[in-house]
Amino acid sequence: MKFSLAWANVLTQNMWLKFVIIFFSILSSILAISTVILSQKDPLIIDRECFSKAIKPSSTDHPTSEIETFIAVSLSQRFDTKVKSMSDLLSDDEQNSRKQEQKEFDSKGMSQKVIVDDVKIDSNTVKVEAMRLISVGQIRSALPFPLEIKIASTDRTPENPYGLRLLKVSQTKSDLK
Q1: Both 75 and 153 in a single domain?
Q2: 1 vs 59: CA distance, rounded Å
Q3: What is the model's pLDDT at position 57?
Q4: 80 and 148 together in one domain
Q5: Where are the alpha helices (DSSP H) in 41-81?
């Protein structure tokens, strides 16, 4: 092998080695700078829990399904004997009416439960076709219980995730045909 050819191969290898060293130096500098920048940011923490939390929605609109669910829950809170009343769903007048009604039922040894059949929504008034189950001991009777309900919008809280309040419940005359 000639000396000039061997020297040319060494120079070519040195040139490639210099190019590779410069490339990896630039790459390691970029990675070091990005590591420093990313280490300055707040960490991303994912916390997994075993219970649910109420979230604060951005919209105050109440879809029909939410109103229907609220009506069923709030009527249960208002009329059912075995349900513990939640103060955030009912107005003060309705809470007082519930207390008086429950005292009367307790004194007579009666209990009641309301089952919602149909809900018709018109702005702030809601017409409900329900069934009222009244029981005295083992004797039970189911009576039609048409209602007209007035509701109002309030802030959503963990106790009241619907953002609605039952203002007034009045019994209407049933349409028996």
Answers
A1: yes
A2: 83
A3: 45
A4: yes
A5: 64-79
Is residue 114 within 8 A of residue 76, CB to CB? The reply is yes
Q: CA distances (Å), 141 to each of 54, 111, 132, 133, 134, in order?
A: 38, 11, 8, 6, 5
d(CA 35, CA 101): 69
Comparing 126 with 62, which gets the higher pLDDT?
126
Structural domain for 82, as ranges = 64-171
For the residues 44-70, what does the mean pLDDT come to? 68
Instruction: Give the separation between CA 170 and CA 137, rounded to whole angstroms.
Output: 27
Tokens of 50: 């075993």
94 and 167 Cβ atoms separated by less than 8 Å = yes
Is residue 2 very low, low, confident or very high in pLDDT (cuts 50, 70, 90)? confident
SS3 150: strand
Mean pLDDT of 148-154: 89
Which domain CATH number covers 167?
A: 3.10.450.230
Taking residues 126-155, what's their average pLDDT?
90
